[in-house]
Amino acid sequence: MTIEKNLAHVRSPLRIAILECDTPLDRTRAKYGGYGGLFKVLLHTAADALNQPDVISAKKGMDITVWDAVTAQAYPDIEHVDAILLTGSRHSSFENDSWIIKLVDFVANVLAQDRVRTIGVCFGHQIVGRAMGAKVGRSDIGWETSVMPVELSAKGKELFKQPELSINQMHRDIVYGFPEGVEELGYSPRCRNQGMYISKRLITVQGHPEFNTEIMTELLVVRHAQGIFDDAVYKESMLRAGNQHDGVSVAQGFLRFLLED
Q1: Running DSSP on this structure, what letter comes out for residue 208?
Q2: Do 121 and 205 form a contact (C-beta atoms < 8 A)?
Q3: Can you tell me the distance from the alpha carbon of 12 to that of 52, in angstroms, rounded to the nearest whole number?
Q4: What is the pTM of this model?
Q5: Are 85 and 225 in contact (CB under 8 A)?
Q6: pLDDT tens digits, residue range 93-147?
Q7: Are 86 and 19 in contact (CB under 8 A)?
Q8: Which residues are catalytic?
Q9: What are the Cα distances from residue 178, in Å, to 76, 133, 224?
Q10: Which of 62, 57, 66, 77 has its CA nearest to residue 15?
Q11: In angstroms, rounded to a whole number, what is the distance separating the alpha carbons of residues 77 and 64?
């Protein structure tokens, strides 16, 4: 079935508000300007990969805005957007900093209505879980880093059109269990909740579909120099940093979710 059959409910362009929850490292920031710019590239690439240019593409069908949720603590009027996308962050989703509390409250309000849809990535995935009442916190297992496999549920396979995923990971915080009403999208040995879904309401992933080899390498080098990763974790992670990953397929799943009726 093509996407066109699902478009009766969708205004054009699709208005997507990216909530930036952190600032990238120097090289990534210089290239993309911020996580908002990075996600624009990903969504444009995914839209073109859907091969339905009359419906959605890099040049048609999306109006993407970027909002600073950390410093400016600026948010869109939800009457003027169709979806929000929460980015990743070096910050901990379970902390009670004022900007994190404000973000959780905003997401809870979005989830309480039935028109604006929610996408969460890594930290954003965890914030969605927290806004729904789930426990978020440090994993007892520790870090999950670099390109890793994720086993998909039936719904995950349906949305991402793949039997399993390879996706960049950079986290040691997790959502414990699944909030009431969500469908599980996937799991890995180091993280049981790799994604959540409710039709027409939310989709989240613990991994980073927006990351590439260059971004992952910069993160690993910096965090190793800072002593966050020991030599063993750093070397093992670097071996996988250049592996093939399915970030564009995940982003295509995001767009299918936004366009579903």
Answers
A1: B
A2: yes
A3: 14
A4: 0.95
A5: no
A6: 999 999 999 999 999 999 999 999 999 999 999 999 999 999 999 999 999 999 9
A7: yes
A8: 122, 208, 210
A9: 28, 9, 32
A10: 62
A11: 14
Q: What is the pLDDT of residue 1?
A: 43
Residue 151, classified by CB atoms within 10 Å of its CB into exposed (0-12), middle (13-18) or buried (19+), is middle
Query: Which residue is listed with tokens 């986290």?
Result: 171
Whether the per-residue pLDDT at 12 is higher than 90: the answer is no
Measured between alpha carbons, how far is residue 149 from residues 31, 161, 240 in Å? 27, 15, 11
One-letter identity of residue 86: L
Chain segment 23-62, per-residue pLDDT in tens: 999 999 999 999 999 999 999 999 999 999 999 999 999 9
Distance between CA atoms of residues 88 and 19, nearest Å:
10
pLDDT at 10: 55
**Residue 187: beta bridge partners?**
151
The per-residue b/e assignment along 30-58, b for 16 or more CB within 10 angstroms, e otherwise, is: eebebbbbbbbebbbebbeebebeebbbb
- Other CB atoms within a 10 A radius of the CB of residue 179 amount to 19
CA distances from 123 to 13, 22, 85, 120 (A): 27, 10, 11, 7
CB 207 within 8 A of CB 187: no
Q: What is the biggest distance separating any 2 CA atoms in the chain, rounded to whole angstroms?
A: 53
Question: Which residue type is seen at 24?
Answer: P
- Give me the sign of the Cα torsion angle 225, 70, 255, 117: positive
pLDDT in tens, 209-256: 999 999 999 999 999 999 999 999 999 999 999 999 999 999 999 999
Distance in angstroms (rounded) separating the CA atoms of residues 157 and 100: 32
What is the torsion angle, in degrees rounded to the nearest 10, for the CA atoms of residue 140, residue 121, residue 180 and residue 175?
10
